[in-house]
Amino acid sequence: MEYKFNYKDKEYVLSEANCEGIFFNEEEIEGFDLNAALKALNEGEEVIFSKEYYSGKCSCDAQEPAGKYYCYLEYHFYIFTKDNKYIISTISEDYRDKSFNKLFSIGKVDKSYIVNVTVCPECNNYSIEVEECDV
Fold it and tell me: What is the maximal distance between C-alpha atoms in the chain?
């Protein structure tokens, strides 16, 4: 599976081949892997990557510094779990007309995570970081 997007007249393709990894700050989430993340991105109607700056340079070594920082393209969305199993993302088709509070109140979900997709604009390599949110 892959996900394609355009940013400033350049096409970026996110696939297994150029993914540096999916990183969980806590334990891994059952059912949420690279394919689930790419599927969610493909289902999202308004996925818009924006510039973000980090102190770490990509391993491609092609980025020009902006002061002490390096430019990346980033997009984030949220996923919800129940008993550490992936249930739904905020950009999936099934999430329309729902909210975490509604799903939580009926016992469908119990935790929320932010998913950051960070892309090097030079080499197209990317990583995905998943971090639990306090609700």
Answer: 49
Rounded to whole angstroms, the Cα distance separating 41 from 24 reads 18
Asked whether residue 53 carries a pLDDT value surpassing 70, the answer given is yes
Q: Which domain holds residue 69?
A: 17-57+65-133
Provide the 8-state DSSP code for 30. B
Q: Give residue 83's pLDDT.
A: 97
The enclosing H or E element of 112 equals strand 111-119
| Residue 5 is assigned to a structural domain of this protein | no
Nearest to 80 by CA among 49, 47, 40: 40
Structure tokens at 113: 């995570």
Report the SS3 class of residue 34. Answer: helix
Cα→Cα distances 105→69, 82, 99, 101, Å: 42, 12, 10, 6
